Amino acid sequence: MQDAELSERRGAFLEMIGGDGPEFDRANLVPDRSRYCMLVSDRDGFVIEAYAPSGDAADFQRAGIVSGGYWDERSAGTNGIDMALRTGQIMTVQGRDHFHACFHGFSCSSAPLHDARGELLGTITLVGSVNRRMDEVLWCEQMLRISSNRLQARLFRTLHGGNITANLVSQSSGGSSKFETMVACDEAGTIISSLPLSANRQLPSEHVNLEGRHLSELRDLTINVQGPALVLPSRTHRAPGARQDIPLRARPSHALSCIAAQGGGMEALVERARKLAAHRVPVLICGESGLEKAAFARAILDDLGLSSPAMHVVDGAEPGKSHAFAEALTHVRFLSEFPVRGLTPVLVIHNVDRLTPEAQSALSALLSAVAVTDDNHGIIGVRPVLIFSAGTEWRALQDNPAMHQDLVYLMGQSVQELPPIRHRDMNAVLDMALDTGVSLSDPARKALLCYHWPGNLREIRSVLREAMICGNGTRITLVDLPVRLTAPGEDKADRDRSTALAETLDSTGWNISKAAKLLGKSRATVNRWIIAEGLRRPE
Q1: Which residues form the domain of 398?
Q2: Cβ contact 501:443 at 8 Å
Q3: pLDDT, tens digit, for every residue of 20-76?
Q4: Within 25-118, where are the H helices?
Q5: Would you say 249 and 275 are in contact if contact means Cβ atoms under 8 Å apart?
Q6: Of residues 402, 412, 309, the one with CA closest to residue 356
Q7: Strands, DSSP E only, in 146-298?
Q8: Are residues 124 and 263 part of one domain?
Q9: 402 CB contacts (<8 Å, ≥6 apart)?
Q10: What is the CATH number of the domain that holds 109?
Q11: What region does 185 belong to: left with phi over 0, alpha with psi -120 to 50, or beta?
């Protein structure tokens, strides 16, 4: 498109909307480092305004996402702008849903713009990466809906500048949908004109047939007289003392209850961790290797009902995932600054003791931003839930020269040191680790209880898996266990003959040949022992 035609179209559009209004505020719609491009088109599908942060503008320009672009489906194929113009609804077109391959790397959310009489004016669009998460898509659609509604409300108030105007708001019965209608009234408060801001939606009864009614007659509606229809959210600030804690269940979930039942202080530790996480205090889980800290963190989040699209889990032990780590921090910061109703930003980082120096610096910046101190009540609107785990004990993490000390204490605002398995109730630990329907013989349980378990839960699960594979699959006996779990220097032939014979027969399902091989005896000898001990094959 020639510059002269573009300028003419832009002038005509601005005249229809009463000038360059606050609805297209770039600081709100395209924040710094957001990697989004904002497009405004007229009703013919010509882009009259395009804006992207300076560092990202070239990427969009190479794909032809610029001012003067024409987005009619006949020339540009399937795209969000054309679909929003045709349907009159907010539309998102992602990746390969676009007709042309050059747009497959983008995701476009477009909202139609209407005037005070409901006539189509054009669209406003946010273009981002196809790899953006669903919570970002929801945020884009929410922001576009607010901008579109705000423009239409401003035009309606301008049209009825000599009258009282009001914004009528109601919620659906389940609270999932919001309905708004602008009305103009005469001096007596009688409605003379109305305009639903929820175009192409089935309106509830309280929003229809409003003309001729008095404002005082309206029920089940929130009425804002001469107030702004909607306030476009910006980087919200948390008021000092505002509560942001997450509702806590009366009792821990089944998974947490099983962990708490292991003794060794685990019950108190579980209760502290779930309360701190519910109050959005960063939780750092430390302890010896093999204590399944990741499973403990997952159980805490499941207990709080925080498994959602807004949750990011990354592992500091994967150095090749630096891009994923940076993306996770960006998304969490983004959702904290621009909250989406019903989504709590959650960040879980495992093996924080193995983060690179660059990753440590980036994490420090995020934690400093969300920290609450006496002189800083938090610079963002919603604090994320933060859970970290380290592969070492707390003291070793403090003494680790590779760790930034400020980061150690930012993460360690609440340190939960998991006790090793040897300090817990081993019977409860074994019962939790056993698969459903699998039992332990008394000699096998005694051997497992006497072992010191340097590998903690990881080693327990490995040993039980080995025993299940080598045994009969339903009952673990002494002969199924690895040799290292028996007393040092002890050999099967030197154990009490009755116990060894019963355990071996149980393990082999009374297969005499297999039992003889395990005991290192002949079939005849094993048969003589069975008769001598008075053992009988189970029914």
Answers
A1: 254-419
A2: no
A3: 777 777 766 765 556 788 899 999 999 998 888 777 778 888 888 888 888 888 888
A4: 26-29, 57-62, 73-76, 80-87
A5: no
A6: 402
A7: 164-171, 178-185, 191-196, 222-225, 283-286
A8: no
A9: 353, 357
A10: 3.30.450.40
A11: beta
Distance from C-alpha of 203 to C-alpha of 217, rounded to nearest angstrom: 18
Owner of token pair 């500048």: 161
**Contact call for residues 52 and 88 (beta carbons, < 8 A):** no
Tell me the pTM.
0.52
Total tally of structural domains belonging to the chain: 3
Q: In this structure, are 153 and 170 located in the same domain?
A: no
Model pLDDT for residues 113-168, shown as the tens digit of each residue: 999 888 999 999 999 888 878 888 888 888 888 889 888 988 998 888 888 888 88
Q: Decide if 175 is inside a domain.
A: yes
Domain shared by 183 and 141, yes or no: no
Q: Are residues 91 and 25 in the same domain?
A: yes
Question: How far is the CA of 349 from the CAs of 312, 314, 330, 332, 381, in angstroms?
Answer: 8, 5, 14, 12, 22
What's the start-to-end Cα distance of the chain, in Å?
90
Residue pair 157/113 in contact by the 8 Å Cβ criterion: no
Q: Other CB atoms closer than 10 Å to residue 294's CB: what's the count? A: 16
To 10 degrees, the CA torsion angle through 520, 522, 528, 531? 70
The residue among 394, 419, 444 that closes a domain is 419
Instruction: Please count the other Cβ atoms lying within 10 Å of the Cβ belonging to residue 261.
Output: 16
Same domain, 154 and 164: no
Q: Are 52 and 40 in contact (CB under 8 A)?
A: no
Residues 106 and 220 in one domain: no
For 415, phi and psi rounded to 5 degrees? Answer: -100, 120
Tokens representing 433 are: 């680790």
Q: Do 326 and 354 belong to one domain?
A: yes
Name which of 285, 512, 271, 533 is nearest 390 in CA terms: 285
Burial class from Cβ neighbours inside 10 Å (0-12, 13-18, 19+) for residue 204 reads: middle
